[in-house]
Specification:
With 684 residues, the protein is α+β, with helices and mostly antiparallel strands. The protein has 4 domains: 33 residues, no CATH class; 191 residues, Rossmann fold, CATH 3.40.50; 93 residues, Phosphorylase Kinase, domain 1, CATH 3.30.200.20; 215 residues, Aminoglycoside 3'-phosphotransferase, Chain: A, domain 2 (Alpha-Beta Complex), CATH 3.90.1200. Helices cover 37% and strands 19% of the residues. The chain is built from 21 helices and 23 strands. The strands form 3 sheets. The chain has an 18-stranded mixed beta sheet, sandwiched between helices. Strands 19-21-22 form a 3-stranded antiparallel beta sheet, covered by helices on one side. A hairpin with a 2-residue loop joins strand 4 and strand 5. It is globular. It comes from Nitrosomonas stercoris. It holds the Pfam family Methyltransf_11. This is Methyltransferase type 11 domain-containing protein.
């Protein structure tokens, strides 16, 4: 509506009220105007040309257009191509890995609250957190990245209320006092202290050096810029609001053993006194040292000066990027009882002063927690025992490469594992795991499924915790278990899944119809939803049709990932199977035996590729091994012709690849070549 007062935003120059006039917002006090272009409000000041992105503006335009015409996997692979071969894994993590935001469970999110992500970049955080908030604001100073985020949100967040703001370089943030519930800064606060770098890149060499030294003091010092920025965030936060900061630890243990500082790329730069680090950077990099990070005491002082009285620290491994483990540094007691690290290196690396990075939850005052984390556990406790008084303790927080958060806990006096899927692919996998665990109940080969809860769009799957060690421990030199006995034990375990009386042998079972569709055609469909390659499509369909379709193979209970990490040896010596995400009640059990041999080979030959493993399994030398004797007995058990071995090895490969594709594999062209095209080249 023309000349309508806008209550959601204020003027970034004078904090005056704004009213809408055509495609712009106008300040009623200083008369400044802010353009609205295709849904993006432009609050930027003098840094209109600021561009922080590894891809050129022209290529970004191409990518944004491509998002309308191609599937998401192709868009991401194109982005990685534009970046170049230097760090594809890092950008895949930045762009698409959902589990890097597992820390969101520590926020007080719900559908009635608002979120502002400052420095939203390419939109991965916004896409992940938007479903847990009622209103989301995505802000970035690089306009092209904001356009990318907007297009991405139109694909993946169609039911979420997201507004897009170009800005961050003005005196004020464009929000009224106490109007936002949560602000996130993931990998941003350290860069805030850089300020405007134009002064360091123009003029004579002597003048540039003078600015690099002089701007290290007073209001223009990196620390004071950071404090001013944090104060501005505190202004817009509600009284009970939260600020989450993902940032490196200045005393990261890796910095002591030759790892360069993450931002300046200076060895030992983070550990030096600031003034010395600045001189070092000017001399070595011809740039000032302004990307300040801190230790826990340093962060406490920094945030206290900005008015944040309450800080909660979460240790992040390997950092806020490539997140694989979280350590909340709270007092041990009701909710957090960490397991004690065994080695000296782990003791140092998990010490709160030396972890790689922190997730910091900052607020104005201590208050009763209403975090998503606690609400999930309270719901589980109530489901497990109606009279439970929400008592729970957590021993670890592990983030897996299949996009799930796994927590070993004690809830209602029972040791359990809680799994929280962090995207749709992981949710589908956990639902399958739940179904198979329920069906396996009574066989004494897998954990019991306990319950499932949902809070603010996150599902929690709870199962019995199996005590023991992965079977890989039996491969260690000090193990007294012989390979012959080990394979005999695995054979007995597989026999429990499919005892002789459950196998119908009166009629030969042909590998066709519905089971062929589920075991062959569905994985191929998953593969070619990612790869548009008609030649490969026709070849693989033809290969499996010619070599396996219509043959007698035998069907039964199939685990789907029988590996050395998914078989647990309990203290009494029995074996238990965990992680049934790829399983089927009516699948091809011989594939489990093949997969176990391949997994054992990769565990003992750490540099072996998937192609190497397959070549080992189908090579002539393999038939002289203990492994082949084990596998031959499985073929005999299922009455399968040994001539089908090669085709079944490739079928196991197809199954493995199809389980990886819904996750990060589909975005990584290098790994697609290694896991798929290199293997197919050997098939032909």
């Amino acid at each position: 509506m023309e000349n309508e007062i806008i209550n959601d935003f204020i003027c970034v120059k004078c904090q005056g009220k704004l009213f809408r006039s055509e495609q712009k917002l106008c300040c009623s006090s200083c008369m400044s105007e802010f353009i609205i272009n295709n849904g993006i409000i432009d609050f930027r000041g003098n840094r209109q040309s600021y561009y922080f992105n590894p891809v050129s503006t022209t290529d970004m335009d191409t990518l944004i257009k491509q998002m309308e015409e191609s599937n998401w996997s192709q868009t991401v692979r194109s982005f990685i191509k534009y970046v170049g071969p230097k760090s594809p894994d890092s950008w895949i993590d930045n762009l698409v890995v959902d589990s890097r935001y597992a820390w969101k469970i520590f926020l007080n999110s719900n559908e009635n609250k608002s979120l502002l992500d400052i420095g939203c970049g390419l939109g991965n955080l916004v896409s992940n957190l938007a479903p847990h908030f009622g209103q989301v604001y995505a802000m970035d100073l690089t306009y092209k990245r904001l356009q990318f985020t907007q297009k991405r949100s139109s694909i993946f967040n169609t039911s979420d209320d997201i507004r897009f703001i170009a800005g961050g370089d003005q005196k004020y943030l464009p929000f009224p006092d106490h109007s936002v519930d949560c602000v996130t800064l993931s990998g941003v606060l350290e860069w805030v202290g850089e300020g405007d770098t134009a002064l360091y890149n123009s003029g004579s060499k002597l003048r540039r050096i003078w600015y690099m030294l002089a701007n290290y003091f007073g209001e223009s010092s990196p620390r004071n810029i950071q404090i001013a920025f944090l104060k501005e965030i505190k202004r817009i936060l509600k009284e009970d609001g939260q600020l989450f900061v993902g940032i490196e630890n200045r005393l990261n243990y890796e910095y002591f053993i030759n790892r360069p500082d993450h931002h300046s790329n200076l060895k030992y730069g983070s550990l030096m006194p600031r003034f010395i680090a600045n001189l070092y950077s000017i001399f070595a990099k011809h740039q000032p040292y302004r990307t300040f990070t801190y230790s826990i005491p340093g962060y406490r002082k920094l945030f206290a000066e900005a008015g944040f009285d309450s800080l909660e620290f979460i240790g992040l491994f390997d950092g806020y990027s490539f997140l694989r483990k979280m350590l909340p540094f709270a007092e041990t007691g009701k909710t957090w009882q960490p397991s004690k690290p065994r080695s000296l290196k782990k003791k140092i690396s998990s010490n709160k002063y030396f972890v790689p990075a922190y997730g910091i939850v900052a607020s104005s005052a201590k208050r009763k927690s209403t975090s998503l984390h606690d609400r999930i556990f309270n719901a589980i406790a109530q489901k497990m025992r109606e009279d439970a008084s929400s008592n729970f303790t957590v021993r670890n927080y592990i983030v897996t490469n299949k996009e799930k958060l796994v927590m070993n806990c004690n809830i209602a006096a029972k040791d359990v594992v809680v799994k929280i899927p962090l995207n749709e692919a992981s949710l589908f996998a956990q639902q399958k795991n739940k179904e198979l665990l329920i069906k396996m109940a009574g066989l004494s080969v897998s954990p019991d499924f306990v319950c499932q809860v949902e809070e603010e769009g996150l599902q929690g799957f709870v199962e019995e915790e199996i005590k023991g060690n992965p079977i890989s421990s039996l491969f260690l030199p000090q193990s007294k278990t012989s390979l012959k006995n080990l394979y005999q034990d695995i054979g007995e375990l597989l026999g429990k899944l499919n005892p002789p009386e459950s196998i119908i042998s009166e009629e030969k079972f042909e590998f066709s119809g519905d089971i062929y569709k589920r075991v062959v055609e569905r994985p191929l469909k998953t593969l070619f939803a990612v790869l548009e390659d008609k030649g490969l499509h026709d070849y693989l369909h033809g290969y499996f049709s010619e070599n396996l379709k219509g043959k007698y193979i035998g069907s039964g209970v199939y685990h789907g990932d029988l590996s050395v990490s998914n078989i647990i040896v309990t203290p009494n010596g029995s074996y238990q199977l965990i992680d049934w995400e790829g399983g089927m009640e009516n699948g091809i059990p011989i594939l489990d035996a093949i997969n176990f041999i391949g997994s054992s080979y990769r565990y003992t030959n750490t540099r072996a590729s998937m192609r190497d493993t397959i070549n080992m399994l189908i090579g002539d030398d393999f038939k002289e091994s203990e492994e082949w004797q084990f596998l031959a007995k499985q073929y005999e058990y299922w009455e399968i012709d040994l001539d089908l071995h090669k085709g079944l090895v490739y079928l196991n490969w197809l199954s493995s690849v199809s389980h990886l594709l819904p996750f990060s594999l589909r975005f990584n062209e290098k790994n697609i070549n290694k896991f798929i095209y290199d293997v197919v080249a050997e098939m032909k």
